[in-house]
Amino acid sequence: xxxxxxxxxxxxxxxxxxxxxxxxxxxxxxxxxxxxxxxxxxxxxxxxxxxxxxxxxxxxxxxxxxxxxxxxxxxxxxxxxxxxxxxxxxxxxxxxxxxxxxxxxxxxxxxxxxxxxxxxxxxxxxxxxxxxxxxxxxxxxxxxxxxxxx
Length: 150
Prior knowledge:
This protein is about 55% helix and about 10% strand. The chain is mainly α. Helix 1 packs antiparallel against helix 4 (about 60-75) and helix 2 runs antiparallel to helix 3 (about 45-55).
């Protein structure tokens, strides 16, 4: 869900170190600022932004920071080459999903897009998310004809 937007986008070691240093120095403020800048669509209701930010910033930094660091350092490309079953992401349109990049490593990679939402698409538009998730499951299980990405 809203991941692998561009598998060729690599965060440099210096960028990771700088970001992680900021999160370690003041997790709550850094996480809040990061989320508000990158994780929501312009039309996300402010009350939802506040609720999600409150939830996320309440996680213990000693757990959250290492998870963030590992996610930024992880290179999914070698693993994508090893997957030979259907892959269907359900992504937001906040940032573009680069199917052309993902398909270099996994030609069967596909994505269904929920429009007008950010990273928390399942909370921003549950009905649209659920519809695309049902389509994704149908594609992966072979229970429906593939539909064009929306």
